[in-house]
Every structure is written in C-alpha cells, then in structure tokens.
Amino acid sequence: MSAARPFGVTLVAILAWLTGLFQIIPGVFALFGGDLTYAIVAIIVGLVTIFVSLGLFRGSNGARIVVTIVFVLNIAASLYVVFAIDGGFWTAIWSILFPAIGLILLYTAKANAFFS
C-alpha cells in the first residue's frame, strides 16, 4: 500500500487544479470575444494543467516531474525579470517564492514516499 497523500502535495494539486480552471474561464470568454487563437491556447493549457493536477492527487510521479519542470521554468523566468527589468523586483520575488514553496512541498520525505 502506498503512503497517504501529504497535505503539501494536496495543496499543490488543489492550486494546480484551480490554476487550470482559471486558465479555461478566460479562454471560454475569448471564444465569444473573437480571439480564437488565445481561446484555444488558454483552454488547452487549462485542461493540461487540470489533467496534471489530477495526476498529483493520484500520486503520479510523471505529473510531479511535469510540475517540477514548470516550477523551475517559472523561477528561471522570474530571475530574469529580477535582473533585466526595472521595477519588476517585488513581482518577480513573489513569482519565485510560490513555485519554490511548491517544489519544497513536492519533494519532502512524505511526498517522496507518496510518489514512489
């Protein structure tokens, strides 16, 4: 029997699911607004995000890897903003903090036991 899902993993999965939902909603509105390209991309990204979040709930290590890659890319992009764009420091710091916390929560000892 696999380990029980830790609270941190549940929290990251819920946030990922909500993120997917909040990507789909503007995509649906964009369908009616006439921006078809944006609508399709937003809906697809939202559906993929929800699919990955469901994998986190189930303990899919593949889903954890996808989320890890996305978090690392978010951190890298935010670090770029810190050093390359004037006035973006605090926004970038928050954009680094949340994915970093997510990474920590996905790789605790309890999370590792859940995903193994």
Automatic annotation (TrEMBL):
Keywords: Membrane, Transmembrane, Transmembrane helix. The chain crosses the membrane at residues 7-32, 38-57, 64-83, 89-109. The keyword Transmembrane applies. This is Uncharacterized protein. It comes from the Bacteria.
